[in-house]
Amino acid sequence: GFFGPREGQVFDGTTVRLREVTLSYDLPKSVFSSSPLGGATISLVGENLWFNAINFPEGINYDPEVLSLGVGNGRGIDFVTGPTAQRVGFNLSVTF
Predict the structure, then answer these.
(1) CA nearest neighbour of 56 among 83, 32, 77, 71
(2) pLDDT band for position 27 (cuts 50, 70, 90)
(3) CB within 8 A of 4, min separation 6: which ones?
(4) Which pick of 5, 17, 71, 79 has the fewest CB atoms within 10 Å?
(5) pLDDT digit string, tens, across residues 35-58
(6) Residue 7, SS3 per DSSP
(7) How far is CA 61 from the centre of its chain?
């Protein structure tokens, strides 16, 4: 049709991502034998560390989890929005 999709503008929306990774280490109980602490865990946490829109051309910012503002029916296109944030954090969990 006149306003229908064109083959050159339709892409497979398959994406692959590494959403979250957590590396934790439980400190040995012997470290806390002379303290009121029962134990501790140290963790390194990362979110949105890797993303790939497999079948999209290079240079097109496509993320299906982004709702673009200012673009009619623009779900997934990073037009006015910022990219999905990558975060890396540190966590210390202590038990008494």
Answers:
(1) 77
(2) very high
(3) none
(4) 5
(5) 888 899 999 999 989 888 888 777
(6) helix
(7) 15
Query: pLDDT band at 3, cuts 50/70/90?
Result: low
C-alpha angle with apex 52: 48 to 53, nearest 5 degrees?
125
Please, are residues 55 and 12 in contact by the beta-carbon 8 Å criterion?
Answer: yes
Q: Which residues pair with 22 in a beta bridge?
A: 45
d(CA 47, CA 67): 19
User: Which residues, 6+ apart, have CB-to-CB distance to 87 below 8 Å?
Assistant: 45, 46, 47, 48
* Strand, helix or coil for residue 95: strand
